[in-house]
Amino acid sequence: MTFESDYTTGGRETVRDLLVDAERRLTNVGVPSPNVDAAEIIAFALGTTRGRMILQDPVSSEQRVAIEQMLTKRLTRVPLQHLVGSTGFRHLDIAVGPGVFIPRPETELVAEAAIRELAEQPVPSRIAVDLCAGSGAIAISLGTEVDHSRVYAVELSDDAIGWTKRNVAAYDGQLTSLGSRVEVFHHDATTAAEPDGPLARFAGQVSVVVTNPPYIPVGMIPREPEVRDHEPRMALYGGDDGLDVVRGVLRTAAILLKPGGLLVVEHADVQGPDAGMSGVPGVARAMIADHVVAAHSHTAAGAPVWTDVVDRIDFNRLPRFTICRRAGAS
């Protein structure tokens, strides 16, 4: 076998050999989880699961070519999720690809906080909004984990909205069986509750608003090639300080939530309680009601909008999301 053909196919016959070769090559280019990625690529190309792929020996030449094609792309740091076409999120398998942000494990905690609050509501009040919905992972999690819920997902990106709708459609049967529904709106999350916005009719009625907005400052370029080169810029960057979209969704949530309703906002680990007015907790505490916000919330203009502002940590014990309640008398 020549060097060229060995490079193309890996020169390997068994799954175990392919795994060793793929993991070595991924390690050499700095892929963070080479063993997992190698296993996922090979299992996908073989049309099986990681737990069963070792039973697939021998591997055909066509399968080796498919593995090599996927591996070559991963070596250039194309996200694994783009190669296999989906990612796990809580109890879901969410379709993802170019144009939509890949949901992270940390965001599962954000969804969980929203789910717990929604589940405590009486059925008529199980109304939730997912702002900057992206793939729809949070919205669908709410609808599938809290029966008889109504969830409204808002996404602005022309590219991402297709993925939102695709994923919601994929879970339509499960949602219907639970008495839940998820409705998708193609709109700017920062203006969705304004008088001409699609959510204006829900002002003061929503129990939970949850959002994973863009929050990276425009001058801060992510180090990871998978994020820097493949995630949509609209999903990453939130203005000079990273908080432009956050401020907008705080206002949208202030209009939508009923008094005592819960807001859950994901943020960067440097935008937590120690960041002052450069962090989400500080911005939330400083927000006061203007006349439009006050009109929908039984709050006087000039009064604080949010109460019980606290921050939560992620799996790495880093600040990850802020929760707060809508002020105002019911």
Please describe the structure with a list of short key phrases separated by commas or semicolons.
single chain, 330 residues, alpha/beta, Rossmann fold, seven-stranded mixed β-sheet, two-stranded antiparallel ribbon, 14 helices, 9 strands, 40% helix, elongated, disordered N terminus
Structural topology:
Blueprint: H1 3-9, H2 15-28, H3 34-46, H4 61-75, H5 80-84, E1 86-89, E2 92-95, H6 105-119, E3 127-131, H7 137-145, E4 150-155, H8 158-170, H9 172-177, E5 181-186, E6 206-211, H10 225-230, H11 233-236, H12 244-256, E7 257-266, H13 280-286, H14 291-295, E8 306-313, E9 319-326
Helix pairs in contact: 2-3, 2-4, 3-4, 6-7
Percent of residues in helical segments?
Answer: 40-55%
- What is the highest CATH level, the class of the largest domain? Alpha Beta
- Going by CATH, the architecture of the largest domain would be 3-Layer(aba) Sandwich
Mean pLDDT: 91
Supply the helix-strand structural class.
alpha/beta
**How is the biggest beta sheet arranged?**
7 strands, mixed
Uncertain residue segments: 1-10
Question: Which fold name is given in CATH as the topology of the largest domain?
Answer: Rossmann fold
Q: Name the CATH superfamily assignment of the largest domain.
A: Vaccinia Virus protein VP39
